[in-house]
Structure formats: C-alpha cells, structure tokens
Amino acid sequence: MLAALEGMITELRQIGVPVSLAERIDAVQSLRHLTLADRDSVKAGLRTVLVKSHDHEPAFDAVFDLYFSAGTAAAPPSPQPSPAGDSQDGGLGGARSQDGSGNGAGGGLAAMDDAGLIDLLVAALRDDSDLLLRAITAILVDRHAGIEPGRAVAGTYYVFRTLRAVDPDRLLVRLAEAGRPPPQDQPAPGQSAPGQSAPGQSAPGQSALLRRLQQEGDEARVNRFRQAVEAQVRQRLVEDRGAAAVAKTLRRPLPEDADFLTSSREQIVAMRAVLDPLTRRLAGRLAHKRRQGQRGTLDFRRTMRKSLSTGGVPVKPAFRKPNPPRPELFVLADISGSVATFAAFTLQLMFALRSQFSRVRSFVFVDGIDEVTDVLQRAPDIIDATRHINEAASGVWLDGRSDYGHALETFWLQWGEQVRRRTTVIVLGDARTNYHDPAEGALKAVSQRAARLFWLNPEPVAAWDSGDSVIARYAPHCDAVQECRNIRQLRRFVEDLD
C-alpha cells in the first residue's frame, strides 16, 4: 500500500500536481484511519489530502486508478479464452471475479456467447449492478481487446476494439427499449385504456421532460460501461508492465499547462472557469500598482492643526488618502490563423475582463484592426460574440495575413488620443509580421501615453526573433514582454505585477 502511495505521489508531481512533503506525510497518516479494504474510502481520503484544485481531480482519479486498481497486486492475468469460447480453466473463459480481481470466480458467464452477454449487460446497467457489470466487462475485454503483452501503449486501441464489439449506440437503444413501459391492451372504441389519458390530454409519464431524463439516465449508464472497459484495460496493462510504465503512456498535461497554440477547442472552452478569478486578480494588481507611490492632495485644515504644536509652522504637511480610479484597459488581440486557438482564448479573456474594469476597450487585428467592445458587451456568451466577429471579418483590412505594423499604425491614428495616463494596454500576439514593416514607432507612441504596456506572447521564448518574429523590436517600448503559453504562465504574469 505504501509503495503504491509513493508511486502515485511521484506521478502526480511529474504531471505538475503540487504535492508538498507535509501533504505526503498527511496522506500516509490518513491511511491509519481508513478502511484499506474499502477502495472508495481510500480514494476519497487521499483526494481530500492531496488535491487542492478542482481542475486536478481528473488527473488524480486517473493516477489513483493505476496505482490502486482492483487486483493490481493479486493474481496474474487470466488466460485467454479459446476460439470456441471454452476456457482453459474449467469453463470460466478467462473471466475475472465479479469484483474484477482476477480470482477466477465467474460462474457460467464465460460460457455465454456475445449476444447473451450483451443481454445480461443491459440488465446489469438497468439494475445498477456494479458487480455484474465488472464481471461482464472483464470477459468482453478478454475476448475482444486483443491486448499484446509488452507493448508500450496507452490502451486506447484496446478500449476501441472492445467497444466496437458491443456498439455503444446499439446499447443505448437497447437500454431505451428496456426502460420503455409495455404497451397497454387496446381499449374499446370510445373508451380510454386503464391509466391512459383521454383524447386531448398528454399521457402520464410521457412528457418531454420525463423522456429527456430517461435518455440522460441511459447515456450515463453507457458511459459507466465505457469507464468500466477503460478500467479493465488499464488493469491488464498494469499487470503486464507495472503502474509506473503505464502512467508514462497515459500522462497528459494539466488544464493550466495546456498550450494555447495546440489546445483543442474543448480545452480552450474548459479554461473559462479559470479566467474569472484571474481577471479579478489582474484588476486588483493594477489598482494596487496605481496606489503605490501616490499621495493624495494636500489637506490644508489637517496641516494647520498639526502646525499648532510648532507655533503655527507647518513642518508636517497632511495629505488626503489617495483614491485612484479603477484602471482602464485596452486589449489588442491577434486573431490571425497562425494563432487560431490562442485567439479563441484571448476572446474569452477579453469577455471575462468586461466586469472587472471601469472601462475595457477590446480590439482585434490581423492586417487591420477593429474595435469589438460593443460586440462583447451585447453578446450573451463568448460563442455568440465569436460568431459576430467572424461574420463581420473584424481585424481584416486587405488580404487577411498578419501585418502588425499596419494594425498598430491604424490603432494609433484612430484611437491613440483616447489612451490616457490611467490606461493599461495589453497586446496579445506572436509578433510575426510576415516580413512587413513592424512600425514599432506606433507602439512607442502608445507606450508614452499609457500608464503601462504589456505584451503577452503565446510562443516559447526559444522561437522569438526567429523567422518573421520581431518581438525584440517591440520589447523596448513595453513594461514587460512575457511568454504566455498556458494558464499557469498567465497566472504568473498576474502575480508578478506586485
């Protein structure tokens, strides 16, 4: 148990989940107060001790299932069934026990053909029988996954082969049919069947809401079967190569480490929950910077009162408490094709910033630049805002290829005079100009009028100033130029504003 815990903590640290030495000690101590035979209890206890963020829970669940999978330290993998479906161990067909431990207690399930197993699977899912579900899943994985010992793979293909043999879509239909009430006898003419509504009334239990709830329940049951298949495949791989080796093949970046430039649309959308607290913190940091080093106006009355102790000589002036206004923010975001997924993130960032500043002006650019403040204010969500921006071809001037120089010059000519000493400007882009004139003079003019100017670049530092990147020509006119490839680096940028 302790060896599995050590391995799990090491893997969590490898993928970026912060686990301190004190938390490791707490995890070991917690095992003394848990029922070790109760896997769910152990999992809940260790999650409480080791996981501090909701975003890290999926990573913890995956790693826990590797190091504490049922039967990991039990018997070796069961033998493969013969082609005829007869087993080599007395009719079990390689089936595991009903708890998935591989102890060989499977009854006559292994002798059943696939059609019979799927009928039984439907019944197990309808009755929420986890023991029977695991037993059936173990047999289906043994028959159809075709696991090859020694291969360093994550097991996705083995899961696919098992699910293909069952057909989750057909399974969903079978569950819907099993949950449908049997048809009533036909009523006599002019009469309603028992329990049936009269003409013009909706039948009880047949409302749209009830059908939707039944459908969602069936989809959840199919998802439980899919998860059971994944768990069985992981268990086979762990038995074959060990948890540490399997963990390397399953390792995925945490949500805050997902690269903006290579993230999927789903990952970018999932970052929305992280942006709201970050934007609140950004507003607080910028307001704090404005208070530092500032004094309020001279309070003449308080100064004269203090001077009474020195015979009327005002040697200790008194000042009013500074009350700087909330900072204004101008955000300029590159939405060209080269940073398409980063553009989706920046639009979400601008959408989240609206409520944190007294005034947020949002601009998007490719080879031209357009203000989209009103679009973001009116749109009910970021999806609708993105659709309006795309339909209007915002930020495009000529050919739709990046031209930072023309975009910055246009911004300075049209909106430069509206940048004030209380304005913070943030530019989000990779500074790749397609070998056009970068027009860094326009950025310098903006910087001289603004309180601060920051540039967040989604490319790694090693790629800066390579090819058509001219970030070095913009950097002297910025208060900070920072690599911003993921949520973790964005959080670091906000925290470093102190």
Explain the overall architecture.
With 498 residues, the protein is α/β, with parallel strands linked by helices. Among the domains are: 66 residues; 230 residues, Rossmann fold (3-Layer(aba) Sandwich), CATH 3.40.50.410. The chain has 20 helices and 6 strands. It has a 6-stranded mixed sheet with strand order 3-2-1-4-5-6, sandwiched between helices. Strand 5, helix 19 and strand 6 form a beta-alpha-beta unit. Helix 6 packs across helix 7. The chain starts with a helix and ends with a helix.
Brief write-up:
With 498 residues, the chain is α/β, with parallel strands linked by helices.
Low-confidence stretches: 71-106, 197-202
Number of strands: 6
Main beta sheet: 6 strands, mixed
Helix content: 40-55%
Radius of gyration, CA atoms, in whole angstroms: 32 Å
CATH class of the domain at 266-495: Alpha Beta
Shape, principal axes of CA atoms: elongated
CATH architecture assignment of the domain at 266-495: 3-Layer(aba) Sandwich
